[in-house]
Each structure stands twice: as structure tokens, then as C-alpha cells.
Amino acid sequence: MDIVLNIKDLKTFFFTREGVAKAVNGVNLCLERSKILGLVGESGCGKSVTALSILRIVPHPGKIVSGEIFLNDVDLLKLSMEEMRQIRGNRISMIFQEPMVSLNPAFTIGNQLIEALRVHRRVTKAEARNLAIEMLRMVEIPAPERRIKEFPHQLSGGMRQRAMIAEALLLKPEILIADEPTTALDVTIQAQVLDIMYRLTQEMKTAIILITHNLGLVAEWAQYVVVLYASKVMEEGPVEAIFENAKHPYTQGLLRSIPTPTQGRRQNSEKLHEIKGVVPSLYDVPRGCTFHPRCLSCKAICSQEEPPWVTISPGHRLACWLFV
Amino acid sequence: MLKYIFKRTFYIIPSLILVAFLVFFLIHLIPGDPAHVMLGDSGTEEDVAALRKSMGLDRPLHTQFILWIGKVGRGDLGVSIYDKRPISQSIRERFPVTLTLTTLAMIISLLLALPSGVLAAVYNNTRIDYLFMLVTIFGVSIPGFWLGLMGLLLFSLHLGWFPAVGFVSIEEDFFQGLRYMILPSITLGLYMAAVVARMARSSMLEVIRLEYVTHARAKGLTEWKVIAKHALKNAFGPTLTTIGIQYGMLLGGAVVIETVFSLPGLGKYLMVAIFGRDYPVVQGCILFMSITYMLINLIVDILYVYFDPQIEYQ
Amino acid sequence: MAWKRFMEHRIGMIGLTVILFNLFLAFAAPWIATQDPLKIEPKNIASPPSKANFFGTDGLGRDIFSRVIYGSRISLIVSLLSVLAAMVPGVILGSMAGYFGRWVDIIIMRFMDAVMSFPAILLAIGIIAVRGGSLYNVVIALSVVYTPVFYRITRGSVLSLKEKAFVEAAMASGNTPSTIIARHILPNCMAPIIVQITVSLAYAIIAEASLSFLGLGAPPPAPSWGNILSDARDFMMDAPWMTVFPGIAITLSVVGFNMFGDALRDVLDPRLK
Prior knowledge:
The structure holds three protein chains of three kinds. Helices cover 32% and strands 25% of the residues of chain A. Chain A is an alpha/beta fold. In chain A, the strands form two sheets. An eight-stranded mixed β-sheet of chain A has the order 6-7-8-3-9-10-12-11, sandwiched between helices. A four-stranded antiparallel β-sheet of chain A has the order 2-1-4-5, with helices on one face. In chain A, a hairpin with a 2-residue loop joins β9 (224-229) and β10. The longest helix of chain A has 18 residues, at 187-204. Chain C has one domain (7-28, 61-272): MetI-like (MetI-like fold, Orthogonal Bundle). In chain C, α2 (10-27) crosses α4, α4 packs parallel to α11 (241-268) and α5 crosses α7. Chains in contact: A-B, B-C. At the B-C interface, α1, α6, α7, α10 and α11 of B face α5, α6, α9, α10 and α11 of C.
């Protein structure tokens, strides 16, 4: 197994006046080269903070408290700010959810792409411009020479996201972190965008961390799945194992909640499934197994001690007292 | 882009006309008969009648307005009752002083306000920020004329660093001229500095949280570049608008400051005219300064597009 | 609920204290002032601060301390009246413009734009120039100058609230526009309007003092702070105290309103922090 990114026991907390929000509390993650890993979870479970922690751009008052993040064999958390800066956008790139707000509205697309290049490579403006146009062509943006002079608000949503992808892949990074890349897009455009992302990264052998709450996306594109809940990993494994053989009550709940055409209709008494309860606040995560208050199979020990890891099959493991 | 400029320019024309009308109408707000009031007791019945005729006060209102606009359009603002000289000429002589004063005040104010506002935003909720808030609250609360008086008291009368009265044009002698202008300019600029600084800070604060700033960091840009290029350009738009509006405060404040420091500018000219009931001069000055203000804001509006390209399409 | 957060806001509390103190001084002036602010004492011209005259005396021998105390009455009354006289038409016109839109909006907007095209102090000076210098005219002038701000704020709030569901519901129930505006929309606009009131009060105090200083405000011998400072000009070299104390009074009053307004803004609209 060729591991390009290895996160060990990452803890990122937010220190606010209202208390400490433990956004990421002991997360482990292994990303294989050229593969796609789906990081799944509901809003507020810590997925985005994990991504920001990898790049060490967690906003104040957040701080990475402990852990190790190995890019190949270098611990990113031990690098100086300058060394880290050289990795950002260069060896690890990130694209964000809403390109309208993540692309700077005051600068042209070209300006931002060229900037991304020139931060890390010594190229002339003309060379950078050509490379940028080429890249825009590769993400299937028509008439790239014209687009490069336009501002983000002049492009459609799908084009903006593709421009972001172009910018992220310009430097041929080893890892691409995609934080909800299609959530803000129409369904038909989603497929297009992901398709382009997939094709390009395959060519460049870039590994992808696909962060999303959309299980359908994960099922279609990812090879490996990590399920996050309230700052901790519940279950992880190859995509087939998770979707066909999920063992953790939370994962099962998630999969059951995907609406099928026969549910929720008037004539049919089959109700939509839900996981009862609400996601806990990160300021006040439950003791023991973080999911225990909502778990139908909760045992006494679940509310007292954190469950250990249990391996079901090669690569497939979960943290649950039911399987110890 | 050109279309946008034309659009903005056309937009102010109705306001321009309305402003002109209001200034024109000012004379008719005088309780009593304007000509009579202007001449006071020194005028005979014939003098008053003659003045009324020459000012066109015996014609119907709209005719007066059109005639007046016609003259203004040709640059003829009338003649001062007091010194019988053409008003536009007096304005032309005095405006450079006011212009120098306001420009210097603007430069000083921006030099103080922008860096401190940005710094306060970047170091939000630290002691730097709290100090900033305290200083700016006082900056906004100290009356300009009093600051001027205190400045005179301390720096001119007590320490003797700057001259208290008098004026030397900057064109004639740069350094001497500057000596006479420094105190008034700083006084005038301080209030604006406080207002602009606060605007810059709040604007930066809003922007700094936005996702494109995080994205800029994720690209590997240095923090300096993130703030100075990405954040600042977006934050500057609202600040620019504030600067434009504050120019109005500068013009108004110039009237006060020129009085305090006895500078021979438009403001002083206006005040003297008010007390001398030289109403044509009052009209001319107010009209001139208001149009200047509107032009400045027009320029600000046009420049705004550079900082917020989306405006062009709204 | 908002009250509690306000209490925690130190600056706001300081501001409120200063304002209340100011109001108290104005109200209790006759008992706090040590002497008659208008009494001329030819034997005691321009004397420095002493036990009899805390702030010294002015060019006519009048006690500056008492004049400053009484001056707070003038500044507070003038600012309150002007802001009120600006707020009422501003809010009414703003709600009309925001609610009815189209022609009403365009016409009023044009007019307000024209007023806003004048630098504020110039407009005030212009109005007073033709009407004569008096506190009454100061109030009129300032109210004209401040109306557009209230208009703009109200209009903005009304426009955004108009789209909300509860307003549509009220419209559907067949209420008259004035009822809808008065009972449903306006109460929700109050926050920015209240903040603006404090800001305008702060401006108005400085404006009145500046206008009086220029000789366009309260005619002498009224003890407006601006007047006191204007009189002090002739004595700057020999009697600096005459310049210092009234200015401090103005600054402190205004600081009070600004601190209070800042705190209000933080509490009522924390986004802006």
C-alpha cells in the first residue's frame, strides 16, 4: 500500500469564550496514492476542520492540539510556517464548497490562476497565462482565452467550480482535498464536475479526499470511506464493504436514511427513516461513544468508555462496543 | 465600463439641477425682502429697487431660475455686493487654499486611518484593537474647532513651532507654505481619520472571515499577500465610499478651520459674506462647494467598480 | 435578553453613565451652578480657576463653570429637538418610500439625494445664513441635514422586511398600509434607527457647538459651549483655561453618546463587530 497521507490521532480544538469546541478529537486517516477517499458525515461533525488542519489553516480560535500528519514521511505539523506555505496549493491543494465565495470576486479568473502558479513556480506572466488557459481548456471551459479575463460572477456555477479545480490542479498536487465540491451545484452539473475532477486526477495520479454528506457521491466515486460523527471516526473501510456490509449503527442509520422511491409517499405507509435525536454540539460531546445517546443498540458501557477499534475484514474496521 | 461611467454621470444630473434650485431658492428663504435686507439701512428706496431689478427679483420665479442657471452655466456667479468683484474670480483665487487644506487633510487622514484600521482588524480582540477603538471614539468626539484652538494654544502660542496666523501659498514657497498649513490640515484630518479608520476596520473584519481569504491561504500565499491583496481590495470598496462622504465633512470643516486659523480660503470668504449679508457670495460659495462634493462622489462611484466588479452589472 | 449583554459591555455602560450624568447636570443646572452664568463682573475679568470660579472667568468676568453647566442644557435640548425633528419625517418618508415603492420612492429619493449632495455643515450654514442666527434656526437647519439619514435607514429596513412572510400575511388579511407599517414593519426596524439616534445626537452636539462658535447659533449672551469658546479666542494667550474647559465638556458629552451608540450597535447587530 502506497500511503501518501497518514493522519494519526489528530485533535483540533476551538478555544472560545463559550468553552472548548472539540471539532476533531482523535481522528485517524490513511490516504493511498492516486485513490479517492470519501470523508462522510453530517454538518458539524468536523470534516472541514480536518481538511483545514491538514493544510494548517484552521481559523482562529482553532488550534491543532496534538497528532501527526504525515505527507509521505514528513510530519506536516512539525514544519515551519514557511515550509508549510510551500506545500499549500503546491503538493496539497484544496477546493471549497461555494466557488462564488471562495474565488475572490475582485480579481479575474486569470489573475487568480496565474497567482496560484507564480507563488510556487518561477514562470513569466506570459508562460503562466498560457498554462492557465491550457488548464481551463482541460476542465472543459469553452473559450478559455476570453474567460481568463472575466470575473467570477460572470461565470456560471459549474464553470466557477471547474475554474477552481483548474486552479487547484495547476501545480499537479499529490493530494486534492475537495470540501463539498458539488453541494452548491445543480444535480446535472454535479456529475460533470466530478467527472472532470476524476479524469484529471487519474492522469496526474493525484489522491483525493472527497468531503461530503452525500452518500450517493461517495458510493459512485470513492474507493475508501471514512465515516465521521461528532469529531470522531465511527467506521471506515473499502466502499463496497461500507455500503454492503456496514456494521456501525450510525453508518447503518445513514444508509437507511437515503430515501428510496417507495418511501414517504401518500399511498405507501413506508415512512422515511431517520436517526432520532440531534447532532451534539461540539462544545459538549457525549462521554464514551459519541453516538451512544442516539444509538438504538446502546449498552451501559457505551456511555462510559470510548469503544476500541474492531477489524471486521481487511481494511474494514469500526469503533463500537457491540463488536468487541 | 464606459457605459457604466456614462450611466453614473447621467444619474447625477437631476440631483445637480435640484441642488442648483435649492441654492437658488435660498435667497427667497430670507425673511422679508432680500434686496432690502442686503442693503440694510444704508440703501434708499431707489437703491433697493435698483438692486431688485439687477438681481432679477421682480420677475416670476421660474424665469429667475432659468436666467440664473444660464449665468451659472457660463461661469458667471454674479458680483459681490461688498467688494463689487465678480464672485467666480474671487472663488478662483481662494479655492486653491481650501483645496490645499482639504487635500493635505485627506492625505494625512488616510495615512493614519488605513494602516491602523487594517491592523486593528487583523489583530481583532487584542489590546491593539481595544486601544484602537478607544482612540477612535475620542477622535470622533472631539470637535474640530476646539482641536484647532488647542493646537494653536499648544503648538503655536506655547511651543512656537508653527505660526498662529497668516498664510503663505504653497505655490510660492513650499516649505513655508507647509508650515502654515500643517496645523490646520492635521486638525481637519483627524476627525476624518477616525471615521475612515473605523470603517476600514469593520470592512476588513467582514472580509477576513470570508472564504476567499481562507482559499488564498490554502494556495500557499504568504499572510501578507493574503491580507494586502485579497482581503484589502474587497474591503476597500465601502471604505472608499466613506472617504467620498467624508470629503463633504472636510469641505464643511474647512469653513470652521479656516475661521479658526484665519486662512484666506473659500470658507472664510463664505463666513465673511454671511455676516455681511452678501447673499450672492453665499450662494456662489455654497453652489461651488456642493458641486465639487458631488463630483468627488461621482469619481468615487466610478472608482468603486475597480474594487467590486459586480457593481457594474447590477 | 439584549439588556444583559448590554450590561456586560463596559464601554456601553460607561457611555450610558456619561449620558445620564450629562442629563442630570442639564436638569439640575440651577442647583449645581455656583453663580449666575450671565452676571457680568467687571472687576473679575479673565481670572484663572479658583475656589470661587472653578473654571475661571471669561472676558466679561462671568463664571465659566456655571456657563458650562448651563451650556449643557442648550446642547442637549438643541440636539434632542433636531434629531427628533429629523427622525419623524425621515422615518415616515422612508417607510412610505420603502413600502409603496415606484413613483413615491423615486421622487422622495431624488429629493433626499439632493439634500445629501450638500456637505452637511454647509447646508446648515446656508439655511442659517438666510434665516438668521438663533437656536430655533439651528434646530431647523440640523433637522433638514439629518432627515436623509433616517430616511435611508428606514427605507432600507422596510424594503428588506417587506418581503418577509409575516408582512405578506398582514397584507393578505386586508390591513391598511399604515397599520401594516406602524404595527408590523416599524417595530422590527427599530434597532438601526435607535443606533442612528445616538449617533446623530453625538453629531448634533458638535454641530451646534460649531455653529455657535462661528456665530451662527445661540446669540450672546447665551452660554452655549460654542459661544464660550468663541469668546475665549481673544484670550487664548493670557487665559488658556477659557479654551480648555468648555471643549472638554463638549468632548465628554459626545464621547458618552458615541460609546453608548457603539455598544448598542454591537448588541443589536453583532454581525458588525
